[in-house]
Fold:
Amino acid sequence: MPVGTARVADTVEPRPRGRRPRRGRYGAVPSKTTGAIVLIVIGALFAVPIAALAWFSFTTASTGAFTLSHYAALVDPAQASNYSELFAGIGNSLILAVIVVAIILVLLLPAMLLAELRFPKVHRVLEFVCLLPITVPTIVLVVGFVPVYQVVQSVLGSDPWTLSFAIGVIVLPYAYRPIQANIGVMNLTILTEAARSLGASWPVAVWRVVLPNLRRGLLSACLLTISVVLGEFTIANFLGQNTFQTALLLLQQTDPYVSAFLAVVSLLFVFVLLVVISTAGSIGRPRKKKS
Structure:
């Protein structure tokens, strides 16, 4: 053995068995304790204002005592006229949510599938169009919607459901991103070609192969769309329509307690939607057994 090689071999220390070499930690990787502290602090920042708002809705203005009389008025037939606009606004918002979700599934989803499977050159154009509304302030879009809705109201009337066309433009970025992210993790071209080679037609390949693999993205897009529709205020306010948010603002002037309670309910509803989105697609999948 050459001398140089022997000297190099003498300087190398043997690695202990059963130990892995320690790797340097690159980037911010907090410990479990640090992560728990961060979650507790962030949770408190969100929970304390919401809990205070909920507590305010259960108190009286004069004594500050706990009471349920504010919510008994919601089901009191004698005071039904005071909350008629609120219930009408909730119904209008739910109708808008259904229509906007239908627009996403009927128009946006087929356009994305065609751009992915048949017309890949149109993909960049479709992405630009779908993401453009998020770069424009909503108030600017409303100013552009006003002359358009003058024509819409003369043709279709001034019913609140006509807001679905304008809100459908607002929700495009929120619906496009989850679906595109789901498409990006799989090769739909290979899946559809495999289905076609087995004798499936295009409708069957899309229904039996493509859509089941897009379940997570579609569910996320629908839930985000619903949350955006229920929280939309600017368009409905400027176009003079009664929705949940506009009715909530009017109710705050006459009954701030019920308004605070409904605000808490809407926040919790959006939180539940986010939890459902985070677990979407995992329900019904078989778990891998540990070997």
Notes: The first helix runs from residue 3 to 11.
